[in-house]
Structures are given as structure tokens and as C-alpha cells.
Amino acid sequence: MKLLLVEDNIELSHWIVNLLRAQNFVVDCVADGEGADVVLTTQRYDVVLLDMRLPRMSGKDVLARLRRRGDNVPVLMLTAHGSIDDKVDCFSAGADDYVVKPFDARELVARIKALIRRQSGEKATCLICGDLHYLADTREFRHNDAPLTLRRREHMILETLMLRQGKTVSKNALMESVFSLDDEPSADAIDIYIHRLRKHLASSSARIMTLRGLGYILRNKEE
Questions:
Q1: Sign of CA dihedral 150, 152, 154, 157
Q2: What region holds the Response regulatory domain (predicted)?
Q3: What are the residues facing 216 on neighbouring strands?
Q4: How many C-beta neighbours within 10 Å does residue 202 have?
């Protein structure tokens, strides 16, 4: 899962980024409205966390431009005031949810996960591929009722494949899912992560198949 944080308060920004990366999210961070507007035209995100009041362009204007482009990415507004006017402004601009500063870490993470579930249309709390289970609420993988221990990027790739189970996922799409703007994207690294995941899934009925020239697909080997 890849998120964009748009926040000009450096201390708060670092706290949120560290919190979300600890939750196995890939996080890009931009400190002003104009920068966010540019990034949102070139990158795809699962959720955008957008401060209401930003330098160079307000969060409301960033959101308005985003929606005019037909981009329906879920947007969680960060506002310093919980007034009715602020709430109305958030939703009028096209926000999906909002949270009032200062907020609790658990609340922020819970709201992000709720937006992701709503966007995916998945009402089930558990996705299944053979004997591999993915718990949507905790973003945890389990195999034979035991947690499947994965490194952060391995987890991100398997999560992307599970959420698009039965569909081909290109290598470029996997690169976008695991690398942030601060990283150096590597196609060779994806091959390494896929190799490691296949080892983790060696005793599972879930299989990562390679479709040469197209990408990868997660399937139950018995299908």
C-alpha cells in the first residue's frame, strides 16, 4: 500500500511517516500544495493524507484539482480545527474523511485502513488464496493458522498480488507499490523479492506465477 502525505509541519510529518512505515506502508511526503499537485499527476496512491492549510496552494485547492482530473483516490484531510465549517469544507472539496489534529496514532491508521477497504470494495475481512489468508483489518498474512513472517517489501509485493488475486500484475506496478520517491527503483530487486516469496510459499497451495513479458499472478495451484 502506497500513501502520500502532504504536510508542512516537519516534526508532525516525520512522526506520521515513521508511524506509517512501521505499519508496512510505502510513504511519499511533500511539504507544500504545489509540490503535491505535481506529484499527484504522475504517481498512483492508495490513500492521500492532505493537510487543509498548506503553503503555495491550500489543501482544498489541491483536492479540487485532483477531483477535476477525475482522480478518485481516497483523501483523508488533516485539519487543525474541528469546527462544522471546516468539516463542511473538507467534504465539499471532495474529501472522503478527515481527522482533527492532534490525533491518536491508532485512529489515523484505522481511518486509513477503512478508506482502503472502502475503495477496494472488499467487504470481506479476509482474502483467501488456497491455504494463504490475508486479514484486511491487520494486513497480516497467515498460513496454516500461523503468521507468515515477511520482510517489509516482501509483504508489500505479496499484498499487492493478493489484492489483485487472479489478475496479472506488471513488474512496473510492483515497483510502484514498493518504492517511494526517495528510493531508486530496481527491476532486479523485484525479481529477488519474488524469489524470496516463493521460498516462503513453498509449502503453501498459493503460487506466484510468472507470465513472461506480462508480469506476475497469484493463484491457488489447485485451480
A1: positive
A2: 2-116
A3: 169, 210
A4: 8
d(CA 26, CA 199): 23
State phi, psi for 143 to the nearest 5 degrees.
Answer: -130, 125
pLDDT band, residue 120 (cuts 50/70/90):
low
Give the lowest-confidence range in 15-19, 115-119, 164-168, 213-217: 115-119
CA-to-CA distance for 40 and 80, rounded, in angstroms?
A: 23
Domain boundaries along the sequence of the chain: 2-120, 126-220
Tally of CB atoms within 10 A around 90: 24
> Which residues have CB under 8 Å from 210's CB, separation 6+?
194, 216
Which whole-number Å values give the CA distances from 28 to 37, 43, 106, 199, in the listed order? 13, 10, 20, 30
- CA angle 160/31/79 to nearest 5° reads 85
State whether CATH 1.10.10.10 applies to domain 126-220. Answer: yes
Helix H or strand E segment including 42: helix 33-42
What cell does 77 get? 484531510
Residue 86, pLDDT > 70, answer: yes
pLDDT tens string 164-201: 888 999 999 999 889 988 888 899 999 999 999 999 99
Q: Provide the residue type at 215 as one letter.
A: G
pLDDT tens figures, 96-110: 999 998 889 999 999
Q: Under a CB-based contact definition with an 8 Å cutoff, are residues 2 and 24 in contact?
A: no
How far is the C-alpha of 131 from the C-alpha of 127, rounded, in Å? 10
Q: Does domain 2-120 have CATH number 3.40.50.2300?
A: yes
